[in-house]
Amino acid sequence: MQHVMEQFAEKIRECYRDPLDPIATQFMFRRPPTVGELQRPPQVLLLGNHSSGKSTFVNHLLGAGVQKTGVAPTDDGFTIVTYGQVSTDRDGPTVVSNPDLPYEGLRHFGDQLVSHVRLKLRPAELLRTVTLIDSPGMIDEAKSEDGRGYDFPGVVRWFAERADLVMVFFDPDKPGTTGETLRVFKESLAGIEHKLLIILNKVDQFDNLHDFARAYGALCWNLGKVVQRKDLPMIYNTFVPREGKPKSRLPMDDFEKAREDLIEEIRRIPTRRMDNQITQLQAFAERLRLHALVLDAAASRFRMLRARWRSILFLLFAALTGGAVFSGLIIALPAVAVAALAAVALVELVTLPGAKRRIVGRLDEIFEKLHDRELLVRDRAEDLRAMWDEVHPHAREVAEKRGLQSFKKMRWADRTVLDELLQQDIPKLRSNLYDALRGGPAEDAPPRDDRPAA
User: What residue ranges are annotated as transmembrane (predicted)?
Assistant: First the structure.
């Protein structure tokens, strides 16, 4: 199975190398995942309010006191716990500067974040197949003047996009009410609901079913305001047993089973990892296609407008020159040439920049026109518009800073390859993965050498 998974991983890497990376470079889209990110071990990101039991759960999984625990916040950083034959810790600058580790991208968030990153190597058996990422406990809204000092929702988004499972812990005292928790759900976890596991932890603290029902209801109410789904995800109600703690009056069998189910989900992550990478590939290709097609159409509008103005000026110059020669006013030709050059400069310096700003301001209109048929399909329209809302800010920034005149026309072969990748190759790759996981044939994974030459 390891050999089969590596075959799928190589095909995914090929898709990024060609055609996605060249098109992303041409239109200044975000870079594809690095080789280190694609080869990373399966990862679990643990989020939650402070004192919700994340670190205690990590220690329970590993059978050792790897993380500090306590009622008050005990850790204000991101801790990456992975396998190592000898227990050792490494600081953030060492972690993000190591090309063999998939965390170089964290440099983008600045030194303040890097100083809050730590890597722990531990010889726990579970860590041979899974890396655990513990996060700072979420608190009430952190204000800019005395907050964390870095983009916390952005960092959570970065880890969540690369994780194969995201576990969000809540406790009876704070069932989803902190400001950062609500913000993280809205800004960091949107679009990756398929990876989320929601946990109401510490249920052994309840004295009776009435208290449990109140906390569970409060959690559902808060989640309903931030989870963009018609129905709420499943909530795992559980606890971590600790020696010397008084036994709860509630029947605990179902809560025990919920904890075992959570652990089983973690053990299954190596098989989920490849499916997540295919999903990540599809999301990258879909957003790149939107970004490139809209910018290409905007650049085409600008090129046509510039060509039209140049044609008008050429005809005007030709008419003036011909009129001067016909009238015998040969001495007027230098003045005509100077006037023509002045007109060209006026168009290039005044008229065209204004036209370019107007075109950039109409990217929404261009998107609607390019996808008018797709937007008529009701179940597709909502997803497509949400995807464009995500892509639009970067597309506009690129168009404004680089300039529409700098984009070469997108080749038809590149469009065809992108469409085939999204409509044929990725669905077939996913289907073949499911066959392989069920013990079926894996040799018929989609070849890529039958594509049109890029």
Answer: 311-331, 337-355
